[in-house]
Amino acid sequence: MPLPYLPNTDADRTAMLREIGVDSLEDLFKDIPQKFRNTHFDLPAPVSEMELKRELGQLAGSNANLDDYACFLGAGSYRHFIPSVVEHIIGRSEFYTAYTPYQAEVSQGTLQSVYEYQSLICQLTGMEVSNAGMYDGSTSAAEAALMACAITNRAKVAVLATVNPSYRDVLGTYCGARNLPLVTLESETKEFPSDCACLVIQQPNFFGYLEQIEAHVQKAHDAGALVIAIVEPISLGMLKPPGDYGVDIAVGEGQPLGIPTSLGGPYLGIFACRKEYIRRMPGRIVGKTLDVDGNPGYVMTLVTREQYIRRGRATSNICTSEALMALAAAVYLAAMGRRGLRHVAELCYHKAHYAAQSIDKLKGYSLAFDRPFFKEFVVRCPAPPSEINQALFKKKIIGGLDISDTVENGMLLCVTEMNTRQDIDSLVKALGSL
Amino acid sequence: MKHHYLLPDISKPGRMGCSLPQADVPASELPSEDLLRRELDLPEVSEVDLVRYFTALSKLNYGVDSGFYPLGSCTMKYNPKRHEDVARLPGFTALHPYQPEDSLQGALELMYRLQEYLTEITGMNATSLVPVAGAHGELAGLLMVKAYYQVRGDKGRKRILLTDSSHGTNPASVAMCGLETGVVASDANGDLDLNSLDSMMNEEVAALTLTMPSTLGLFDPKIADIAELVHKRGGLLGGDGANLNAVLGRAKFGELGFDYVQLNLHKTFSTPHGGGGPGSGPVCAKGQLADFLPGPLVARDDRRYRFASPLRSIGKIASFYGNFGVMVKAYAYLRSLGAEELKQISGDAVLNANYLKEKLKPHYFLPYDRTCMHEVVFSGKRQKAKGVATLDIAKRLLDYGLHPPTVYFPLIVSEALMTEPTETESKETLDSYVAAMEEIARDAVENPEVLHSAPHNTPVRRLDDAKAFRELDVRWEMKGQKK
After folding, report:
1. For position A379, which CATH number holds?
2. pLDDT, tens only, A331-353
3. Interface of B with A in 164-183 (CB under 8 A)
4. What is the DSSP string of B389-428?
5. What percent of chain A has pLDDT over 90?
6. Do B224 and A174 touch (CB under 8 A)?
7. Quick one: A310 and A409 in the same domain?
8. What pTM was computed for the model?
9. To bridge B241 with a disulfide, which of A104, A233, B261, B368 should be the other Cys (CB 3.0-4.6 Å)?
10. Last residue of some domain: A306, A331, A356?
11. Which of B5, B36, B37 is the best mutation test for A, with the most CBs of A within 10 A?
């Protein structure tokens, strides 16, 4: 049967070949040497739409879908409530079937949405300018480090040991690519090296607790280094934003803002900085202007930073990024608004503290850090967390991340507004009965 | 259509765009004041105003669902609706990257099969799905090349050769890797100049990166000679797979002599572009190079799937495993097609491009008059001689309700109009595009003013880029906001 994606009929094809002046379709492929054209492709036979939906329904159905579990995993990917408006708006095909807005006159929907996104990210982070988004939190952090090296003309990057290890790995890959040494500093470090371009710090950190960030900022700035803060956007509903403690570049994982956890992607890299550094930023930036009739409109601006103009001298190689995810984040932030985001943050805070206090009372369990935290905390368990998690899973509970490689029998738990008191009580009960 | 307001304009204290539950746990003491934020100046909008605002914005956009989108090298083919539905199944979206592998077997099986299909289609040995965009995949490929020579103790190979028609991301990715770029010239036919390659291909060169077919839409018949020369001098041949659509189901990169190739699932495999992402840029590699792929990959032991990193992986390049949601759509595309159907896709893609080439050749200068592959590059230089720039032609196309081709690229064609119709367009659509382009060519001579002043009936007209640059306005502030 004809493929629904191919509108040409055999009669059309014959007519077109005649117009072109060749006898057969094969004649159009004659530049590919004959010996390469007789190859075999071992692929399964195609299925109809009905069969496809059945097959994918089965594949999807064989996963443990978090909607059926009480889940306490975080560590860089977070379950938060997504209002229906988000999916409905990003599901409009005028948004999702468009390309990067190279033709501004017919891309104002995308461009104005990016301008909204940039503005909302600035409001949230307290930073002066934002780009249109990067791949994810980890690559945002890595590109921020490269940017800091370019600004300071220094060739070494410092990162705190309390930064998410996965982010430190990505930083290592990106810095290694440019032969820039990456130094890991302990959180309590007194001395800051004099030759580093930047300090990368996470607030709240990987273990969930708040760093004494102002002291770190002071030390790094005294040494002439920039400060890159990796922030968690929901926490900024109540916690002091990076713009208020003087960081130079704020990055973070945008996924909590209306994007499902989706096994790790697609996500969104938040990237905001001081205005004086805007020309060093990677990625797209949208600016407001006027058209020839004097009507306001939006365009991609400062494009001379970008690879398609500047090629090898661009600030980054990034081209296709995560535009639709940035739209989701913009819709989410607008839907939450001033009161909603604060409320979500407070729900996370109170539920996480309720869970932490309850677990701390259990025999054999204790909180690993006596420090203020937001929605994540580390518990020392009486047995290896991997064993505990297996037992929890049987009770339809997905426990926290096993971090026994850094904290003895340590489990990193995350509690959000998605966890009901009942979820938390069953977790506590299950832990206590193991 | 005018749309001059922004979110702060529909914000009013007391409005709410969402409904949230009350706390069901006792309140805990808040952290000390110095850790808390004082104000959170986000707009307050109602749900209905929010929906209308973004719906109105969407109407200012042009997507593949709106009409013809022949943006060269971007493969703007139709995005099947069934993909959107299956990718939104909760069994795919409500998965945490760190939940136990045993609870992810369906997702891992899908990833494993997609790896296998892409490996087969490209004729390579292994595939990493981790890179989330084409340029991300390029970066991964070059890091693999770099690591490959480091392991061999060959420290002198610091240069990557590119062609003068390469994508801008190519040299930018080379720079990200701390390597240098050498540019190989094209010959009079638009193919790679073998003499130029011969003179440049020395022991300082790590790899030649080729887009095949090239950004001129041409397949280089000397590909086997190119691969042989590169390999004989100890180099690797890398592929930018942006134009895979042209050879889908017909030839394999591995057999052509490429050592690795980076793909774009958002081009060839029909996942939507989203206005600039999310994409997915898998890297497929052959032989020893496969040991360096960015991890984690999905491996299979007996009947169980698990994440595993290759022996000498270049390491992590993203937080998790890649853009899984995009992979689901590409998998759905491949399952809806078989080997024979893939061949039909490249067949119609190439047929459509050659049809446009023949029909438009009388009206626009064709710098390389030979059979093209999936795209054809015209030059607007005849029109330019009359004072009409390619930009004017592009803007005039908007008045016809058509999206223009890629303009001013590749750089080696002056006033370039790089046109990629894709296989999902009918002869009727192509004919209407041809009719518009003919009329524009006529107006360029008889009525150039209508081109200079185009577009006329778009939501906004030509925008002042210089003003945007000079008077940077990249965000709003709320009314009365403290600076």
Report:
1. 3.90.1150.10
2. 999 999 999 999 999 999 999 99
3. 167-178, 181
4. -HHHHHHHHHHTT----EES-STTSTTEEEE---TTS-HH
5. 95
6. no
7. no
8. 0.98
9. B261
10. A331
11. B37
